[in-house]
Design goal:
It contains 9 helices and 10 strands. The chain is α/β, with parallel strands linked by helices. The chain has a 5-stranded mixed sheet with strand order 3-2-1-9-10, covered by helices on one side. Strands 4-5-6-8-7 form a 5-stranded mixed sheet.
Length: 242
């Protein structure tokens, strides 16, 4: 007997969106494509699942968060997952200055600039303190609340959605945030059955990376111009892409 294919809950259409990284232009375009698709499926529940990494690297992180906090068509219910870049930004806003060097190296300078905060020269402690103060003052309270309310994972049917990955051998409900936000090597190489098909971003591939146990949809939007949406409906899957 053939093994059943993974599926979504009955009459439910899922839209999973990969890493945006400050590309408001691509996000706007992709959301228009999703809304056009959703209108053709009026009989179904429709969920938007953003896989995290809304900020850094691209030019308009502030604009991306503003768009995501602005609401969606009435028939699209959003879930916002946390990526490692949101985790670093939150740490900075909360005053954990130890994260500053890594965050700035990984694209945080672009996020700071989008909020009108310039980062000059090195990142000595006094400069990190000034960066924290300026960023905290200029980030709208609604943006910080959005970041704080992001989820580490969500599951629908036979699919588990997470930013980076999971650790094999550990039940999905017991996964640790450090792995959910940062995991790569062991997760990507694993052929284990994780319990559900893991849909993730975080690791760039030129096209969606479809494996029996996982589907990766980070197509490097900030550099490639390709922001990807995975559509899951019943036992079928398809893609939208800018």
């Amino acid at each position: 007997m053939n093994k059943p294919l993974p599926s979504t809950p009955a009459a439910t259409r899922l839209y999973a969106i990969g890493d945006v990284h400050g590309r408001l232009d691509l996000l706007t375009r992709l959301l228009a494509m999703i809304e056009a698709d959703a209108t053709q499926h009026a009989d179904k529940k429709k969920k938007l699942i953003f896989l995290g990494d809304y900020v850094d690297r691209g030019l308009d992180s502030r604009g991306v968060i503003e768009r995501l906090t602005g609401g969606f068509a009435a028939n699209l219910v959003p879930h916002f997952l946390r990526g490692n870049h949101e985790e670093m930004l939150l740490s900075m806003v909360k005053g954990d200055l130890s994260v500053a060097p890594v965050w700035l190296q990984l694209g945080g300078t672009a996020t700071a600039a989008s909020y009108g905060v310039s980062v000059f020269g090195g990142i000595q402690k006094h400069k990190a303190e000034a960066l924290h103060k300026s960023l905290s003052e200029k980030m709208p309270p609604a943006h910080r609340l959005f970041l704080e309310d992001t989820l580490f994972a969500v599951t629908y049917g036979d699919y588990y959605f997470v930013h980076a990955g999971v650790r094999a051998g550990i039940p999905l409900e017991k996964q640790k945030p450090q792995d959910q936000l940062w995991m790569r090597g062991d997760f990507l190489a694993s052929t284990a059955n994780f319990g559900k098909v893991v849909v993730h971003g975080h690791t760039i591939s030129p096209e969606p990376d479809i494996r029996p146990n996982r589907i990766g949809i980070d197509t490097g939007a900030y550099a490639s111009g390709r922001l990807t949406c995975l559509i899951l409906d019943g036992e079928t899957h398809s893609f939208l892409q800018t």
